[in-house]
Design goal:
Elements: E1 3-8, H1 13-23, E2 31-37, E3 41-47, H2 50-56, E4 66-72, E5 87-88, E6 94-99, H3 105-114, H4 124-138, H5 143-151, E7 158-164, E8 167-176, E9 181-184, E10 189-192, E11 204-207, E12 212-217, E13 223-226, E14 231-232, E15 237-238, H6 254-260, H7 262-270, E16 274-275, E17 280-281, H8 290-295, E18 298-303, H9 305-322, E19 326-330, H10 331-334, E20 345-351, H11 357-368, E21 372-377, H12 383-387, E22 390-393, H13 406-426, H14 431-442, H15 444-454, H16 456-466, E23 471-476, H17 480-495, E24 498-503, E25 520-524, H18 531-543, E26 547-553, E27 565-569, H19 577-595
Length: 613
Amino acid sequence: MCGIVAYVGPKQAYPILINGLKKLEYRGYDSAGIALLNSSLNVYKTKGKVSELENFVKDVDLRGTIGIAHTRWATHGEPNQANAHPHYSQSREIALIHNGIIENYGLLRKELETRGYTFQSTTDTEVLTNLIEDIKNNEHVSLFDAVRIALNQVIGAYAIVVISYDDPDTLIAARKGSPLVIGIGKDDYYVASDATPIIEYTKNVVYLDDEEVALIQRSSDLKIKTIRNQEKTPYVQQLEMNLTALEKGGYEHFMLKEIYEQPFSIKDSMRGRLHTELGTVSLGGIVDFEPKILAASRIIIVACGTSWHAGLVGEYLFEDLARIPVEVEYASEFRYRNPVINESDVVIAISQSGETADTLAAIELAKSKGATILGICNVVGSSIARATHGGSYTHAGPEIGVASTKAFTAQVTLLTLMALRMASLKGTLSRTRYMQILHALELIPEKVAQTLILSKKTVYEVAEKFKDVRNFLYLGRGYNFPVALEGALKLKEISYIHAEGYPAAEMKHGPIALIDEDMPVVFIATNKGTYDKVVSNIQEVKARKGQVIAIVTEGDTIVKGMADYIIEIPETEEMLVPLLATIPLQKLSYHIAVMRGCNVDQPRNLAKSVTVE
């Protein structure tokens, strides 16, 4: 959500900035803008897409070797040109871009108004811009110190980059609660909200930590201080992603590419961790915390959205395989309900981006209570990776589509490995059973590839049939209940069709009232666990003329004789079914969205990385 790009160096800034904004379009946004410093400080911004910004500035002087750019996802104030970033200060000598929310902006605005400031927007960001100018002018300090002092008065989250007419060789960057990375080139600097706009120019980066402010000057070394004026030594890291991972590779959409990457992303998430020849699972990031997990009174999983669904699968895995009690919490609720957290608890925080604001807040709460915090995320150097005591990366590779696909299956893969490792250490599975599951897990990438082939024709037919319906119902039991939730979420996210996921048995406790000949019902009805019960649920839907779409195990004959549409997946162990059953549901959502003319990779109102509460 929201994107930041900035540049200072010998090159022309505009091509770098506009290219960077295009790389960040996946994050979700509703307006875009740019500020360039040449003979004056010029801000150009507009509602809509980056392409509209390009058209807006096609006849203006875009020369300049220093600049900032932004894509905005509206929080304070509606999406329009006035509220778009960058924001000028009142004198128009300072411009600022901002991700996050300034919670006390109302009080700050009133104070500035008493000092004669007027505002052109309804944003919290313009307030911060004028606060910096006020401090710079009245306390007679440098731009760097004005930013640092101003941030001591701010309550909330921010990632900001500031540019000033009076400092034509300087960018000031700072963060708290929203990610910001600085790329170090040969004789230039790049700043962005994530590494995607930077990777084609340099792999040397510095990730700012909370309450750090960076002084970025042309032809000078990078300097970092905290907002309390404590000097910090920049820690330079190497980016691991490559540029081809950020391209569509011949696919029509990033989402489709990422669906088809899952055989590889799952395998990469197991690589070096699953050793079937030795009969072992090793997770280096949690090895020091294994005694804590084994002794834990319970595991608490905190996450949001798709990651929360992966956490639900994790609950089944840890309790089923390792016999460790698990609670799965929405991170957004966890921090506000005064939860009981003990030092004997282990908290697992799951996030694709590693920047989810609610999950970070849940981590800080749990840490304050003495719990051990482990993270599962996909982005090296992200805030969650730094805030947790330990954890593991999923190695899914960059996920550009807003609707998460390969990140979900990578998270479930990693949770499966963790649960198996704990089961091995606790001895809760016989050696024979343990090895059966290990071998089945090793075959999952191949079976995902098979699923992509098996589901291709039928999924497209189902999408054509139901693309214009207004409601969908998804039902599953046991391990497949979270799959039903995730399938419904995918359809909502990208096609804007209302969909709900339920435990199949709960259908009789309300949702059955919705069943008629116009209601498509998706059942995850694989031949494991409570298969016979799910068959009964299908009969109940058919008795009310509902239209049944069933995900079944290859070769199934019972459900095939009942359902209107059958989508087959290969046979596997019950606890591994989510890794296969979710694939056709992702494809169904994708095809329906395309047929409805929806923007698949950038669905309305959504953002890839939710960095505000």
